Amino acid sequence: MSEKKKSAWSPSSREIERRKTRRAINRKQIIIAVLSSILVLGTLALILVTSPGWESVKRTFFDIKYGQEILPLVAKGLWINLQLTFIGGAAIGVIALGLALLRTTKSPTLTPFRFLATAYVDIFRGAPLILIILLVGFGVPALGLSGVSSNVIFLGTVAVVLTYSAYVAEVIRSGILSIHPSQRAAARSLGLTSGQTMRFVVLPQAIRRVVPPLLNDFVSLLKDTGLVSILGVTDAVRAAQINASRTFNYTPYVVAAILFLLITIPMTRYTDRAIRRRTSAQNSEGAI
Amino acid sequence: MGNVLELSAIRKSFGDDLVIDNLSLTVPEHTATVLIGASGSGKSTLLRCINLLETIDDGQIFLDGLEISDPKINVDEVRRKLGMVFQSFNLFPHKTVLENITLSPIKVHGKSRDEANAHALHLLRRFDLADKADQYPDRLSGGQQQRVAIIRSLAVSPRLLLLDEVTSALDPVLVNEVLSAVRELKGDGMTMVLATHEMGFATQVADEVCFLESGAILERGSAQEVLHNPQHIKTQEFLKRVHQAGRL
């Protein structure tokens, strides 16, 4: 490797001129961006505020005083959503990894499990989550199995885990399949068994590659935990619903939406950054 | 001095494409056999067959007298005795240089981490790469990566080393550092089968040169015989083309 040269030079008059031109172009672009933003956003705001129903909408959806009053109740509900997300997320990670490995295995012993894993993924990826929640939430207690909890939070979590494990398994599987066969060939030529090759060579690379899409699924998971409210779990959505139907004021829904956004927007921003980093890292990887 | 490798009338086809055609070859211990031939002549496939990465359609492969083309054989055990270096290096990008080298000694050969590290560092020092031990492969030049790949295959002390056009992906300046590493192995008495386009290098290391054409060995002999006094018209044509490309 050659030593980096230190840059010690004073720019030529041509370069100074070029920089001045670039600055001028930049200024012009900023002015255009600001003007166009004011025009578009201002028009939208104007349409909203001057609409005939604005006053009543403001009263029923954006009642700030009422919003402050019910904020603790909705926030308490959101805590349920967060717990559900993290506990469910951990379970999903483990189950999805197992499913992905089963679906990619060529082991003859595991053949029946490979079929079962494929059927599982097909079913739970294809059925609407809300149906699974209803089926598990109302169906399982009806079975009257001893030892199975009929706690709605537990059953709601199970339903979400069942569905998301299928999604996440497919993401992990696509990561496994994206690892070039030459990596497997290199590992096998060193005497590693197919299991060792998966564990030490393929899976670590595959997981790294699918972290951004998995973060995406994590954000969706947090939002979709709101669906367990249909079982009567007092999460943020349910808390908002109870209060809204009591007062006929919909501000609680807006409060719940804002609380969800406060968590999901930073997460999606972070995911986008992770994807960008991943892409630029891959570009510098070259032939490998 | 026994034969490390014996190929007896092996065949391999991909669909209708016959890639290895009734090929026999013997590689005595401590010798280097160099495979030359145009792209698509079957050199890489032959090496992959020896390593059991491809299953042959007919014939037999013997390693130290044991038939490894027997379907009942444990392929993982066979591969422990073979080293393979690929054209595209195939280092593990998520592992450091040291981890790349010690993975197989630790996980396959049951060495302790300390023992494996010490041996790896010894090899890295020998090939002037000691300062790269903790780097990731993408920080290394192509020549350095390929030398790491060679060390990785050496770390398990293989009976036979298979080198598949190990310099084809490198620029001319980097080719030399890799070739001198291979020359050193030859000096150590490592038994090798190499596919290469570097004819000068072939002359230096080959005990036997085989010219492959459409999956068969058309001409074989010492480097002097095959490379400098070829008998077969196809060998002459091939060498002329290589010569025109400035590689002899």
Q: Keyphrases for this structure?
A:
A: 288 residues; mainly alpha; MetI-like fold; 10 helices; 81% helix; B: 248 residues; alpha/beta; Rossmann fold; 4-stranded antiparallel beta sheet; 9 helices
Query: How many individual β-strands of chain B?
Result: 10
- Please give the CATH architecture of the domain at 79-230 in chain A: Orthogonal Bundle
The main sheet of chain A comes to: none
- The helix content of chain A is over 70%
Description:
- The complex is a heterodimer of chains A (288) and B (248).
- Chain A has 10 helices and no strands.
- Chain A is mainly alpha-helical.
- Chain A has a domain of 152 residues: MetI-like (MetI-like fold), CATH 1.10.3720.10.
- In chain A, α3 packs across α6, α4 crosses α6 and α9 runs antiparallel to α10.
- Chain A is flat.
- Chain B is α/β, with parallel strands linked by helices and 248 residues long.
- The model of chain B has no long low-confidence stretch (mean pLDDT 91).
- Chain B has a 6-stranded mixed beta sheet, with helices on both faces. Chain B has a 4-stranded antiparallel beta sheet with strand order 2-1-4-5, with helices on one face.
- In chain B, α3 crosses α4, α3 packs parallel to α5 and α5 runs parallel beside α6.
- Chain B has 2 domains: 165 residues, P-loop containing nucleotide triphosphate hydrolases (Rossmann fold, 3-Layer(aba) Sandwich); 65 residues, no CATH class.
- Chain B is built from 9 helices and 10 strands.
- The interface between A and B is medium-sized, with 22 and 30 residues.
Write a concise synopsis of the structure shown.
With 288 residues, chain A is mainly alpha-helical.
